[in-house]
Design a protein that fits this description.
Helix content: 40-55%
Number of helices: 11
Order of helices and strands: HHHHHHHEHEHEEHEHEE
Strand content: 5-15%
Largest sheet: 7 strands, mixed
Number of strands: 7
Amino acid sequence: MLQLEFFPRTELKSLSDFQRLEGTQLSLSDRKLLAHHPEFYQTPKANDVIRRQHANMVDRILGFRLKYIEEMMIAEARGFEPDGSHETWGPALHSGVQTWVGLDLQTLQTPYSECLRILQLLKIKPYQHIIDLGAAYGRMGIVIGGLYIKNSFTGYEYVKARVDEGNRIYKELGFNRSQLIAQDLFDKSFELPMADVYFIYDYGQVEHIDHTLKQIEAVAHKRPVKVVVRGKFTKRIIADRHPWLDLQYEGKLEELFSIYSAFIV
């Protein structure tokens, strides 16, 4: 068994280094040690294909059972929609809610290196709270739990199987300040908690995202907030309907996310 205490940090420079880790029987203490190294979340090259491959390897190294869980949902969804796809399986399985069942896992989730880059650009301060709206398996909570140990993370995700799996890994790694919650964000009874940062992906239809942005706007009347948007769909909604959000950063090398700020007085 590999003893990572003697594993040089400089070894995490190429995908082959991560492949070697993936093929090694790691103890829980090994995985915990890796989870606290910034290099573990950095992609060897700034390339979208490499970012996705790297993120897939990190998932497996940490012990996520993503392929199994997603394949089980696809099999169940096919019972409702035999000739369906990722466009139809989620709504068929989850009462009309678009949960992207069958979508490629690396499209469904934000790469770890991108999560790290976002947190660096945000210049996160200790004890700030980050909320992810449409968190899938909670990769952002992994990076925060490993590298920003004084910060708290809450991820909301509709699919309970994804929530349970993410929380299982959080618990194994001892990330007490990271949690996932099963939640329909469009439910009328859901009240968005206050936070310092909100992370939004293209998680649903126009009215869903618009509803969430209006909830964040209500928070911005009480305190400064930052909103990180990943996906062109949500950016268009902001441009058309939410001028109160001030664009602070638009991906240059990344071209995948934008950061907005707001404090409405």
